[in-house]
Amino acid sequence: MKRKIAIASLVFSMILTGCSKDNNPAPTSSGGGGGGGTTPPTVTGTFTWSEDGGTVITADSAFWTTGSWGTGIRVFKGGYANFFEINWATTDNISVGTKVLDAANYGFTFMKGSDTYTISTNQNLNITASASNKIDGNFNVTVTGGSITNVTANFSGLPKR
Questions:
Q1: What is the spatial distance between Cα 97 and Cα 94, in angstroms, rounded to a whole number?
Q2: CA distances, 29 to each of 84, 107, 115 (Å)
Q3: Rounded to whole angstroms, how far apart are CA atoms 138 and 140?
């Protein structure tokens, strides 16, 4: 039995070592991935949010990204202690207008401590300005998954990563 545990531990540590440089910003099937690795990227625009109308919180790092899965925003505060993964359809979709956050396809995930908040119905994100690969906008979503029921955010100058 001890040998099986030792072998399993060795295989697990080899997997972790082999994956430690993954910085893929694409969404994961669990909806909670996005930044990859253990250290969040330090790309930044301005991203602020409030929970249930409370104090405005300013992110340490925020950016937008794109891939075959669509377009999205990644936000970090205190490392991964507060992490947003927000996604909408279509690659490089940063034109001014309303973007649908699809509840069935992990359109919105907010991890705060040990709680993970998602949306149970499709909701919207607004892009109010888009120039030189930087975006401005806002959203106001109803969430489930813990004690918070509403998240409101504003962002400006979010660069592409």
A1: 8
A2: 15, 11, 17
A3: 7
Helix (H) or strand (E) holding 131, with range, is strand 123-131
* Alpha-carbon gap, residue 160 to 39, rounded angstroms: 18
Maximum distance among all Cα pairs of the chain, rounded to whole angstroms: 60
Q: CA dihedral defined by 41, 43, 45, 51, rounded to 10 degrees?
A: 0
Task: In whole angstroms, give the CA distance from residue 148 to residue 136.
Answer: 25
Q: With b meaning 16 or more CB within 10 Å and e meaning fewer, what string describes 72-105?
A: bbbbbbeeeebbbbbbbeeeebbeeeebebbbee
Q: Which two tokens stand for residue 110?
A: 């907010």
Task: Specify whether the CB–CB gap between 104 and 121 falls below 8 A.
Answer: no
Q: What is the pTM of this model?
A: 0.77
* Tens-digit pLDDT profile for residues 27-37: 443 344 444 56
Average pLDDT on 81-99 reads: 98
CB-based burial label for 108 (10 Å; 0-12, 13-18, 19+): buried
* pLDDT for res 64: 98
CA 92/CA 48 separation, integer angstroms = 23
